[in-house]
Amino acid sequence: MNTIRVIPCLDVADGRVVKGVNFINLRDAGDPVELARAYVGQGADELVFLDVTATSEGRETTYEMVKKTAVNVTIPFTVGGGVRSVEDAQKMIASGANKVGVSSAAVANPELIHEIATAIGKESLVIAIDVKRNEITQSGYSVVTHGGKKDTGKDAIEWVKEVQDKGAGEILLTSLDSDGTQSGFDRLLLKKVTSTVKIPVIASGGAGELRHFVEAVESGASAVLAASVFHNGTFNVAEVKKALVDSGFEVL
User: Is 51 in the active site?
Assistant: First the structure.
């Protein structure tokens, strides 16, 4: 049985966390390094930082944030948003990130996946895939980009196959239909994707109750990711891990 990872996600703009956080005893609730340290204390296995603005003006701020996080945090972390080239990925790794997340740029240029995997190692490359239901596609799901604004019409299952074949080490799979609803992960989507690829799949989008994390793992996820339910204190990382262990899964 694979060991399941629990991963808090921090949305960052210009070096600041942009979703509300209700943690107590934080000097600055908008400081991503402070929050990262708090999640380490809760037992998080990894962290994901998503630069939600991904503007060229803010890029240097992001690199500075990565450097500070690397100094202060002892667990692996992924940084995504705005990575459009091999050079971007290499600079992110050089700044201290353990993994780099790539999304829209990979859809626009699939060969970039192989190029980045070759440059930094496939174990350091996470391809983030945002998906919406679309009855026109064979699988019933299509890939969307630009924060859900652009439906590419690309079949999600065909895309995950290609992503794996081109050298991705991991997939961060977000159901935009479920994201923010707190009604549970899209289990059908997870089953379709995890039965198609052999690389790890991180489930994202829809967590609202502890049982939702268990359901995601039962559907094939190797890791579970959430933001709001951790930020607002609905439950913490340790409680998610306990729910998984109580259901017979192994956690770190």
Answer: no
CA distance linking residue 233 with residue 193, whole number of Å = 30
Residue with tokens 């400081």: 31
Nearest to 227 by CA among 74, 12, 43: 12
pLDDT reading at 115 higher than 70: yes
> What local confidence, expressed as pLDDT, does residue 28 receive?
79
Residue with tokens 């908008």, as numbered in its chain: 30
How many other CB atoms are there within 10 angstroms of residue 188's CB atom?
14
Count of residues for the chain? 252
Residues 6+ apart with CB under 8 A from 246: none
Contacts of 139 (CB under 8 A, 6+ apart): 155, 156, 157, 158, 192
Among 146-155, 164-173, 230-239, the range scoring the smallest mean pLDDT is: 146-155
Question: Catalytic site residue 186?
Answer: no
d(CA 173, CA 92) in angstroms, rounded, equals 21
The single residue of 11, 155, 179, 186 carrying the catalytic annotation is: 11
* 162 has a pLDDT exceeding 80: yes
Q: Residue 228's CB: how many other CB atoms inside 10 A?
A: 17
49: helix, strand or coil: strand
Amino acid 243 reads: A
Catalytic option among 45, 130, 155, 186? 130
Cβ atoms 207, 224 nearer than 8 A:
yes
